[in-house]
Design brief:
heterodimer; A: two-stranded parallel sheet; 8 helices; 22% strand; globular; B: alpha/beta; 28 helices; 47% helix
Chain lengths: 274, 808
């Protein structure tokens, strides 16, 4: 990476990509790159060391169950430190590899502490947090992990949940509005997010509601979305690049809880509540 | 004792048998119908007919023919005719053996269907490479596959979540890392500090530890069960693949099944292909642009070994290069990824495959010239099936895996073209030959020439001319060709059957006709071709004549000489055969009945010549010492002969020389003699009589001693005379004479200017006669040798009386 160019921001705000080298974090980074260019934002790769693991390793009774072998093995403080160092190093190598193909370089920032607290200290309103789908744990790589779900429940800044594959799709972004309040403000915020001259934005209003939406200054679609399949069909029909929704959107809360997002290979932008 | 009357020289008409062109009822051969080239070869044709119809094992044919008889062409024409009425045999192909890939399957199909099967299987492969990946890319398949994968993942996740919930309910955190799972006690939703944990009472710690151990056990169970779940998931994916493939293959496969419904072998193979495709469904999914492996698709092809498309008769195959591979076939190899590999598609047919169900013609000299080919042919014929085995494996040199293709049943009639010498050797030294080649077809070297068949002979010449693509021949030209054919046969009653010679003659004559801008080939061009051919090979003969004319080789063609006679011999040099006189000399002295053959003593004489000398010895003894002893010691020599002598055609001349020496009477040197003699003094036929006469004629002409010159030949050779025109002209002009002799007396009567003399009642020859002089000389020898013989006789009588036997 020494010969690559460091990332030089031109605009305001920062993109905090939670990166641990897992496939989900790699996909998130790949989707953050075009966003970074569109916004002119600063890209930061953040590696968070969970103190719970360190505490866990210090417990006298601690044993680790192998993720594949199922075997019990010791994981004391020294094994934990070594494992952390290796994982951090590996994450940097993966990061170098991903960015190196684009002639870019970025140093992985490592921070200890509970993830939410670390992010609360680092991230401000103008920043973005970019997370991937499931990390190393679990068998459902398309499902957003527990940290992502926690962030989506109450985002303090814009949150982007990357798609499983990390591929970027051309096409319009769909702004999901499932209540008529603050329509213009959300639309404006969404436009800001996509940047000047950014992608086309289409508004999707949840049908079946008696609410009267203020006429938005954008193409809008009235459609009932009551399942993951309906959401998937909508994205296919519109050939959408991704979804944008408010954190207080009932649709998104239901979708995250019911796993609607699992089947959708598109990024989701979650706007903080206003 | 022979007659002593002087023999009359032959009339010129006896020296050559003209073709009666006045009886040929045509102007040119255009007007003649063709005649099969097999005309005159009735015996061989009967044998071919018999052998080709005998289906029993071992009734293959061997054809004996001299080179130049164009037996191959005649056999082929016969077999083509026979095969035209026989059914076209099956196609054969090799297919991949799904049970044992090293043993490809042989499959027979109705004629012309192999080509169709190959095309059909290629169609199937095209479907597999284009249509099947499309099925796997379809929304339906992808959705179903995702459902299966998600179900598998969800099942795992659900179990993991359940443990996590259970742990949480017990204030235990489930923390995952890239390498595994950790369980730790919690307090207020956070993992407990180690110090706080240690501060707990022992019972509390034990309780927590027990819970954690229990959860770890459950976690282990979940993880250890993953392979089983994955296997079940894979089975479901496989079932999905099969379901999709059955659908994808259903259309083309059913179409093929319908097309090949009458062929159980093909149907069975199609079933195996379908099973194999399903087993290897993963390879057809074409993920991320991957192409289907060639090796996999290669299994579904058909290697059509024998394709009878368009054929209307049983095959007649001539193998021009009958080595092992060309006969039995070969399994080729390819370099793939740096290694030599092979598969059923690289099996190549041999001529036995192509001829299966028909006829295979092989030249014996050629097949015997190729290592192992003869043994391979015999092995296949004996086994009744074609088993392709590479030479590398036969010699244990195969360094890679070799195939053992399923043998193909063989039903073929092999015709082995042999020369007589080769057939004799095979009969004598190869017991398999008699067992496998039971029918002999013997092509005659000569055709019969009788007057009432000249029309047929003319048609035969016309046929040859047409096949050679020459201009038509006039009747005179045909007549000359027939006469030349008799000359080549060396017999007035025969015509050479060596079509190749006549074929070449016609081509050469046609060349001269073209030079002369003639529309026809006339007698003149035939003569020109014969003369030109003679001229091309005349160098050796001219050199030999030159040596005689310059006196380097001593030859006397006038006057008389005692104990010296002009014998005649035929010399061969390359394609040339010419006759020349050879001086034979004899010396005599008293002895014990021995005649020394100097040629034999010098190891220059052959066995037949030695036999001839022995016979003439007994002949002389019989004539002049029938009741007594032959007290003679003599020697015979071919003067200035350095290349060896064989044959007995000089035995008459040798007797004449010996008797001349004994009688001290000179022999006429303007006569040459040829003929063999038996113990009774009868003269017997010899070979090469035309060349010998012409040779002596040219010597005499060169020495300008024509006039009374001539040649004594056996009377039984007269019908072999087809002499050159120049000799005939000389005979007609009284410048040269040919005497047919039947006995030694007739020869002597011509050779000496002295009465021979006949035995009187008392058993004596008249005094002063030739025979009388011989008898007197021998009596003188006896007197000289008697004291020695008396001693020997007395000793012999004593021994005889002791044993009770008598001596003659």
């Amino acid at each position: 990476m020494t010969e690559a160019d460091p990332i030089d921001p031109t605009g305001s705000g920062r993109l905090w990509v939670l990166f641990d080298g897992s496939p989900g974090s790699q996909a998130a980074l790949l989707q953050a790159l075009p966003l970074m260019q569109a916004l002119g934002a600063e890209l930061r790769a953040l590696y968070i060391e969970d103190p719970a693991l360190a505490r866990c390793a210090s417990l006298s009774i601690n044993l680790e169950v192998g993720a594949v072998s199922g075997r019990l093995r010791a994981r004391g403080p020294s094994e934990h430190r070594h494992a952390q160092a290796v994982q951090r190093q590996r994450a940097q190598v993966v990061l170098d590899h991903l960015l190196g193909t684009r002639a870019l370089s970025l140093a992985l920032e490592s921070r200890p502490g509970p993830a939410l607290e670390v992010l609360a200290d680092l991230v401000d309103d103008q920043d973005w947090v970019v997370t991937g789908r499931s990390g190393y744990a679990g068998w459902q790589p398309t499902r957003p992990g527990s940290l992502t779900r926690s962030l989506a429940d109450a985002p303090r800044s814009t949150l982007m949940i990357g798609s499983p594959s990390g591929r970027s799709h051309p096409g319009p972004w769909l702004l999901l509005l499932d209540d008529p309040t603050s329509t213009q403000r959300r639309l404006s915020r969404a436009r800001d997010l996509l940047g000047p001259g950014g992608a086309e934005l289409r508004i999707v209003c949840q049908s079946g509601s008696a609410a009267d939406y203020a006429t938005p200054a954008a193409p809008w679609i009235r459609q009932r979305i009551a399942s993951g399949l309906a959401l998937q069909a909508l994205i296919q029909d519109q050939q959408a690049a991704g979804l944008i929704a408010s954190a207080d959107s009932a649709l998104i809360r239901t979708g995250l809880a019911a796993g609607w997002l699992d089947r959708i290979d598109r990024p989701l932008l979650v706007l903080p509540e206003y | 004792m022979g007659k002593t009357d002087t023999v009359r020289a032959l009339d010129v008409d006896a020296l050559y048998r003209r073709c009666p062109i006045e009886t040929l009822d045509f102007d040119s051969t255009d007007q003649l119908d063709p005649l099969p080239l097999t005309w005159g070869q009735d015996r061989a044709m009967r044998a071919l007919d018999f052998g080709s119809r005998m289906d029993n094992e071992g009734f293959n044919l061997f054809v004996q023919a001299s080179p130049g008889t164009r037996a191959l062409e005649q056999v082929r024409a016969f077999l083509d005719d026979r095969a035209a009425a026989e059914r076209v045999p099956d196609d054969w192909c090799y297919l991949y053996n799904f049970d044992d890939p090293e043993c490809p399957l042989a499959l027979s199909l109705p004629p012309g269907q192999g080509h169709r099967l190959r095309a059909d299987l290629q169609f199937l492969i095209d479907e597999l490479t284009s249509g099947v990946p499309g099925i796997f890319e379809s929304e339906e398949y992808q959705s179903k596959l995702n459902e299966l994968q998600e179900a598998f993942n969800a099942k795992q996740q659900k179990r993991l979540d359940a443990i996590a919930e259970e742990a949480k309910a017990q204030d235990i955190a489930l923390i995952s890392t890239p390498t595994g799972f950790n369980l730790a006690p919690m307090r207020d939703g956070e993992v407990i500090e180690p110090e706080a944990f240690e501060a707990l009472s022992e019972s509390e710690r034990e309780t927590i530890e027990e819970r954690i151990v229990e959860l770890q056990g459950k976690l282990q169970q979940v993880i250890q069960n993953v392979p089983n779940l994955r296997k079940a998931a894979q089975r479901k994916v496989r079932e999905l693949n099969e379901e999709m493939l059955e659908f994808a293959l259903g259309g083309p496969m059913n179409e093929l099944r319908e097309r090949w419904s009458a062929d159980a072998g093909v149907l069975s193979h199609l079933e195996r292909i379908q099973s194999d495709v399903i087993e290897n469904a993963q390879a057809f999914r074409n993920e991320q642009g991957a192409i289907v492996p060639v090796e996999l698709l290669g299994r579904y092809q058909a290697n059509v070994l024998v394709d009878r498309s368009g054929e209307t008769a049983a095959p007649v195959v001539y193998e021009d290069l009958p080595n092992h591979n060309h006969l039995v076939g070969v399994i080729e190899q390819q370099v793939r990824d740096g290694a030599m590999v092979t598969d059923y598609r690289l099996i190549r047919p041999g001529s036995l495959h192509r001829a299966n169900g028909g006829y295979l013609i092989v030249d014996a000299r050629r097949i015997l010239g190729h290592s192992l080919a003869w043994n391979s042919l015999k092995r296949v014929l004996a086994a009744g099936e074609i088993q392709i085995e590479s030479l590398e494996r036969s010699f244990g040199l195969a360094s890679t895996t070799m195939l053992t293709p399923q043998p193909i049943p063989l039903k073929v009639k092999v015709i082995l073209l042999t020369e007589r010498g080769i057939a004799d050797l095979l009969s004598r030294y190869d017991p398999d030959f008699a067992r496998l080649f039971k029918v002999e077809a013997d092509f005659a070297d000569q055709l019969v020439r009788v007057d009432d068949q000249h029309e047929q002979l003319a048609r035969l010449i016309a046929t040859l001319a047409r096949r050679a693509g020459t201009r038509a021949l006039t009747a005179a030209a045909v007549g000359r060709v027939i006469e030349h054919g008799s000359r080549l046969a060396g017999d007035q009653r025969k015509l050479t059957a060596q079509d190749q010679l006549l074929h070449d003659l016609l081509l050469e004559a046609d060349h001269y006709a073209a030079d002369a801008r003639s529309e026809w080939v006339d007698r003149e061009q035939i003569e020109q071709a014969i003369e030109a051919r003679r001229d091309r090979i005349a160098r050796s003969a001219e050199r030999a004549l030159e040596r005689i004319e310059r006196g380097i080789v001593l030859m006397q063609t006038e006057g008389t000489a005692i104990g010296q006679v002009n014998g005649l011999a035929v010399y061969r040099s390359g394609r040339a055969a010419f006759g020349l006189p050879s001086r034979i000399t004899a010396t005599t002295r008293p002895g014990r009945g021995q005649i020394i053959d100097i040629e034999r003593e010098a190891k220059l004489g052959g066995a037949i010549h030695t036999k001839g000398v022995m016979i003439l010895t007994r002949c002389i003894a019989q004539r002049y010492a029938a009741d007594g002893e032959l007290s003679l010691s003599a020697s015979l020599a071919f003067e200035q002969s350095y290349g060896g002598v064989d044959g007995d055609s000089a035995s008459v001349a040798e007797v004449c020389a010996l008797l001349s020496s004994l009688a001290r009477v000179g022999l006429r040197q303007n006569l040459a003699v040829t003929g063999s003699i038996n113990q009774h003094g009868q003269v017997q036929a010899v070979g090469g009589v035309n060349e010998k006469i012409e040779g002596f004629f040219r010597v005499c002409r060169g020495a300008q001693t024509l006039g009374q010159a001539g040649v004594l030949i056996p009377a039984s050779n007269v019908e072999h005379l087809m002499l050159d025109e120049e000799v005939r002209d000389a005979v007609a002009a009284g410048q040269f004479h040919i005497y047919p002799i039947t006995s030694l007396d007739e020869a002597l009567a011509l050779m000496v200017d002295l009465p021979l003399g006949k035995l009187d009642a008392s058993g004596n020859y008249p005094e002063g006669s030739f025979n009388g002089r011989v008898a007197d000389r021998l009596a003188g020898f006896t007197r000289v040798a008697r004291p020695e013989r008396d001693k020997a006789r007395a000793s012999a009588e004593e021994e005889s009386s002791a044993s009770g036997e008598s001596d003659d």
